[in-house]
């Protein structure tokens, strides 16, 4: 499709989770800073509730996921939601591309979430440049790729899993939905959804990853033999890294309203490195037994703690727990995680090991206690502990629960132990390498510049 004004115009299509929107939006800001027009494409339903910074440099357009009025929470299952998005999204994305063309804003390229492989087919239909964006680590994507191509079969057999340029993995160190395949909680549709990210990837022009080269050097080199691969992370606001994008101070779009004032006022009164920050993202919802162990474990560490939890999680806390920890902890429904991790009072981050949270922590030099919950987090936790040396991974018992004593021991080791000193030194190294990657002449900066040059050739 002809781009009438010859100015490259990129449509960015993320999954509707905050952890997928944020990295792709930040990548879009980098493109805008280099003269590319960028439009974020999201669902009709989500657009109604997003908190958008009025100074955001990226336009927003909507397509339908099939749940415009009632929301994806009424889809019945993740699989049903993605199936509906594929059907309705394909049709309405095509409509959007045609509408933009009529308004002299023709699209040049689509950067689509790897979970939406159908977007590649729409891009092909209109002759657009097509780039898949992956919000999992290259290690995790390699595992999904091998399953998709039949090179790694489910259910797993044997004691270890050996894949090119990855450490030997125990079966439980793979993405959870793969590990439990063939067991009581099997969801074949979800396995298919995750591994289908690689179903048509050979037709993509570029594969973009929210990581940075030195973090996953060997696996990036291996993948680069198969596809045009670009690492563009860490995808944080520029003010926290290279400071080259003058007005890039926050994520600009939030699904949840952060309790910024309450969090920062509370942290401001705490000594340097004295606070344990606890957050498990927007999806994880631990069972009551786990919430109880978490609660008593945090109470027992004799440290201050800031704990982010949804209202549904809060109902699982022990009786009178909130009152009992009033002088020790603060519990909030959502917080400005960037500002929190950047605060000098934070000494440790108890995390579910979602990739973007891991990237944030390492970009700020904050050591982690990894407590993986779901999907790719088991593999991320393995790398946080055994490969990157940026934290301690705590493991579940035979009942699937991380006990309070295990949690206490890990936090105390980070905060005051000898191993904690080594980990703190490691994360400071990763902090410098993260900044180096996005700064002028860094690996991510070079990749973004090459991507921009390609877009200019396509327009």
TrEMBL record:
E.C. code: 2.4.1.-
PANTHER family in UniProt: GLUCOSYL/GLUCURONOSYL TRANSFERASES, GLYCOSYLTRANSFERASE
Matching InterPro entries: UDP_glucos_trans, UDP_glycos_trans_CS
Superkingdom of the source species: Eukaryota
UniProt-listed CDD domains: GT1_Gtf-like
Protein name as annotated: Glycosyltransferase
Family the entry assigns: Belongs to the UDP-glycosyltransferase family.
Secreted keyword on record: no
Alphabetized UniProt keyword annotations: Glycosyltransferase, Transferase
GO MF, one example: quercetin 3-O-glucosyltransferase activity
Family matches, as Gene3D superfamilies: Glycogen Phosphorylase B (3.40.50.2000)
Entry annotated with the keyword Glycosyltransferase: yes
């Amino acid at each position: 499709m002809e781009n009438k004004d010859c100015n490259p115009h990129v449509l960015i299509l993320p999954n509707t989770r905050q952890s997928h929107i944020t990295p792709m939006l930040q990548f879009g800001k980098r493109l805008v800073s280099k003269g590319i027009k960028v439009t974020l494409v999201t669902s009709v339903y989500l657009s109604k509730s997003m908190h958008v910074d009025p100074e955001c440099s990226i336009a927003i357009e909507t397509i339908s996921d099939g749940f415009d009025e009632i929301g994806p929470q009424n889809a019945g299952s993740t699989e049903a939601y993605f199936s509906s998005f594929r059907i309705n999204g394909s049709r309405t994305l095509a409509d959007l591309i045609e509408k933009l063309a009529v308004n002299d804003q023709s699209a040049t390229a689509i950067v689509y979430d790897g979970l939406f492989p159908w977007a590649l087919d729409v891009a092909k239909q209109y002759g657009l440049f097509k780039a898949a964006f992956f919000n999992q680590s290259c290690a995790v994507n390699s595992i999904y790729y091998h399953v998709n191509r039949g090179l790694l079969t489910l259910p797993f057999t044997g004691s270890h899993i050996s894949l090119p340029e990855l450490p030997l993995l125990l079966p439980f160190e793979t993405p959870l939905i793969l590990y439990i395949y063939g067991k009581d909680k099997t969801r074949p549709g979800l396995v298919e959804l995750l591994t289908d990210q690689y179903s048509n990837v050979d037709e993509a022009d570029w594969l973009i990853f929210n990581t940075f080269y030195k973090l996953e050097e060997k696996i990036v080199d291996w993948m680069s033999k198969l596809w045009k691969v670009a690492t563009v992370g860490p995808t944080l606001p520029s003010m926290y890294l290279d400071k080259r994008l003058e007005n890039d101070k926050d994520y600009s779009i939030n699904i949840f309203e952060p309790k910024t004032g309450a969090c920062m006022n509370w942290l401001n009164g705490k000594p340097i490195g004295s606070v344990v920050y606890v957050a498990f993202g927007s999806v994880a919802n631990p069972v009551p037994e786990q919430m109880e162990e978490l609660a008593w474990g945090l109470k027992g560490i004799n440290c201050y703690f800031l704990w982010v939890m949804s209202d549904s999680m809060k109902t699982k806390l022990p009786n009178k727990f909130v009152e009992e920890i009033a002088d020790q902890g603060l519990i909030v429904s959502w917080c400005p995680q960037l500002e929190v991790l950047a605060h000098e009072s934070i000494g440790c981050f108890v995390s579910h090991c979602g990739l973007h949270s891991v990237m944030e922590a390492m970009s700020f030099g904050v050591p982690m206690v990894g407590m993986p919950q779901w999907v790719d987090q088991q593999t991320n936790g393995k790398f946080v502990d055994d490969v990157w040396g940026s934290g301690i991974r705590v493991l579940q018992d035979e009942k699937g629960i991380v006990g309070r004593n295990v949690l206490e021991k890990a936090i105390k080791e980070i905060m005051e132990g000898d191993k904690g000193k080594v980990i703190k030194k490691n994360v400071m190294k990763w902090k410098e390498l993260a900044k180096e990657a996005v700064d002028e002449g860094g690996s991510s900066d070079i990749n973004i510049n090459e991507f921009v040059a390609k877009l200019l050739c396509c327009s």
